[in-house]
Structures are given as C-alpha cells and as structure tokens.
TrEMBL record:
Is involved in generating a small heat-stable compound (Nod), an acylated oligomer of N-acetylglucosamine, that stimulates mitosis in various plant protoplasts. Pfam families: Polysacc_deac_1 (PF01522). Residues 120-300 form the NodB homology domain. Belongs to the polysaccharide deacetylase family. Residues 50-70 are annotated as: Disordered. PANTHER family: CHITIN DEACETYLASE 1-RELATED, GLYCOSYL TRANSFERASE-RELATED. Keywords: Hydrolase, Metal-binding. GO terms for cellular component: membrane. Residues 58-70 have a biased composition (Polar residues). GO terms for biological process: carbohydrate metabolic process. This is Chitooligosaccharide deacetylase. The keyword Metal-binding applies. It comes from Rhodopseudomonas palustris (strain BisB18).
C-alpha cells in the first residue's frame, strides 16, 4: 500500500495526514484533541488546529468579486437542481429562496419564527471550510447523489484555499459566512465582532470571485442581541441548526453517521450541522446520504434572493491580507533547461 505522510505544526501539536490506497486509510491525529474537545461547544475551536497557511499555487485571491443578479442566481439554482444524470440519486426535492431583508433567523435551536421545512425534509450545511482533501471529498459525495448544501466558510480558510471555495461555487452550492477567524463573538467588543463578520464576508467574496449569499452562522452559535440586530441592519440572515452531528468530537465515520441519523429520526426534519473541515465527516458523507435516501428524507436546497453587499473598507483591508499571486515565469522550460549530453527519456 502506498502511503504519504505530511507533518505540519499546528497550535503546538502535530497534524499527521496519512494517505493510503483508499480513503478509509486516511486519518487526522493531534495530541491535544481530547483536551480541545472538552472546551468545544457545538462547532468547536478552530484556531488551535490551523497549520501554517499556504497560498494556492494556481491563482490570485485578490480579484474583485462579481455580483450575480437575483434572476441569474435563480436560473443557476434551477439549472444545477435539474441537471442530475445519476439514476437513483437522492437529488434535491425542492429549492427555496430566502429574502434576507431584516435579518431573519432559521434553525429551531435558536430561531422559531420561520420554520419552512416539512416533515422529512433536511437542509445539509457545512461549517469551517474550505479545507484541503476534506472539502473536495464532501463535494464528490454530494455530486454523486446530486444534492446541494449550504456552506459557511471561515474567511481566513477561504483566503488560503480559494480554488477549493471556487469548486464549491462551481458545483452550485450556496455559500454564506462563518466569520473571518472563528472567534466567539459574544466575548468580543461590538466593534471587534462587527469586524469579524464583515472581514469574513469580504474574504469569501474575494476568494470565491463573487459575493456570497447573505447567510451567516455564529461560531459556536454564540450570539448577542446587539449582533443579531446588526445582521438585521445589514440584511443578513442568521442560520442556526436543528440537528448537530457533533462531528467535531467524533472521529469515526460510522459514529458520525449514527449521530446524525439518530438525532434526525428524533427531530423528524431540520437543518443538519456538519463540518467539511473534519476528515471523519468527509469519509462519512457517502453513507450519510445513503441513509437519508433509505429513510425517505428529502433534501431542500436553500438559496438567497440577493447576494450580500460587502463593505468597501473591509474589501480593501482583507485584500491586503490575502496571499499574493504566485510568481509565474514568462520563459518556457525549454528556454531555461536544455539537454547538452545524453538523451532525454
């Protein structure tokens, strides 16, 4: 079996990635996992797990985002929902469009004003990406079953991995935001919290090449009345959850599947919280989707009426923080290296 091991320093620990012949032989290990799990609430603490960032080697991240019109966004959503060519796939049951004016809230854990899901309907949502290997594995599983999800990326992650975020967009999923750096906003000053929200949206817009949906999820679901009101002023909808996978604390794919399905069977429907940052979730996704199909659940794709309007001062500030575009040599290889002795194979 061929294996490749990559080691990276992360918050004082070591993050080990082992790639084997199949996905089932890939593991993420960190010495301080157990201690961190004790401190996590719902979505957990991401900062201590970050390795040293690398800029994408294929593109610049600082291009100005484009803004799609409501008509364009609706047409794209309809096209991607109707384009499934996989017989027997789970598919999207229906697509809904959210008008985020005034900052409505969704997810019965915190908000009960807008319960739009019927019994047996689910919304798939993923936090904390984009992340190498894991996000694309999640995307592959979703594509195989022709289902769409809502992704809530971290702005800093988006700035490190714009090509992966562009893949999420290209496959027709909805993207919102999960702040710039995944801090607990309830412990920050009002201005610091606003900065985190706005920097997150600006970073995601720049990395994706287009403005995201005005959808926001609070890290650890920790909000304050002032911040919820601020989202309302900015016409940004707040997304909570109905079913918590707890995949931040579960590191076995089978256990992730069991956690989701047990809670969903009890709730009967809902917005499911998962993390494309988590390797166990990436491995679990094919089985999760199979279990949803076997259980007769229907996937609802949530889209936005309008894109978020990012603020220019944050666009400029975040663009200055983005990794620079890699240098590209104008000289072809043959003009730099030539064989002077022997024969090239």
């Amino acid at each position: 079996m061929r294996r490749v091991t990559v080691l990276a320093a992360a918050g004082g620990g070591v993050l080990a990635i082992v790639i084997g012949a199949t996905a089932s032989h890939m593991f993420f290990n960190k010495a301080s996992d157990a201690a961190e799990v004790q401190a996590e609430l719902t979505t957990g603490t991401v900062a201590a797990r970050w390795p040293t960032p690398r800029a994408d080697a294929t593109e610049s991240t600082a291009a100005a985002p484009s803004v799609a019109t409501p008509q364009t966004r609706a047409a794209e959503a309809a096209k991607t929902s109707a384009s499934c060519s996989h017989p027997g796939a789970l598919g999207v049951s229906r697509t809904v469009q959210i008008d985020a004016a005034g900052g409505p809230g969704f997810g019965l854990t915190q908000y009960r004003d807008y319960d739009f899901l019927q019994p047996g309907e689910v919304v798939l949502s993923f936090d904390d990406g984009p992340w190498p290997v894991n996000t694309r594995a999640v995307l592959a599983a979703l594509e195989a079953e022709c289902v769409k999800a809502v992704f809530f990326p971290i702005g800093k992650h988006a700035s490190w991995h714009p090509a992966i975020l562009k893949d999420v967009v290209a496959q027709g999923h909805t993207i919102g935001s999960h702040t710039w750096s995944h801090v607990n906003l309830a412990k920050k000053s009002l201005q610091e919290a606003k900065d985190e929200i706005e920097k997150g949206f600006s970073a995601i817009a720049i990395a994706a090449g287009r403005a995201p949906a005005p959808f926001f999820r609070f890290p650890q679901l920790r909000q304050t009345p002032e911040l919820k009101a601020y989202l309302g002023e900015r016409n940004i909808a707040a997304f909570s959850i109905d079913v918590d996978s707890k995949d931040f604390a579960i590191h076995e794919p089978d256990a992730v599947v069991s956690s989701i399905m047990t809670k969903l069977q009890k709730a009967g429907k809902g917005i499911i919280l998962m993390h494309d940052f988590q390797h166990s979730t990436a491995l679990a996704m094919p089985q999760v989707l199979q279990q949803l199909k076997a259980g007769g659940y229907k996937v609802v794709h949530v889209t936005a009426k309008d894109a978020v309007v990012t603020l220019p001062q944050y666009d400029s500030a975040v663009a200055a923080l983005m990794p620079p575009a890699p240098a590209v040599s104008a000289r072809a290889t043959a003009g730099v290296v030539r064989t002077v002795s022997g024969a090239a194979n």
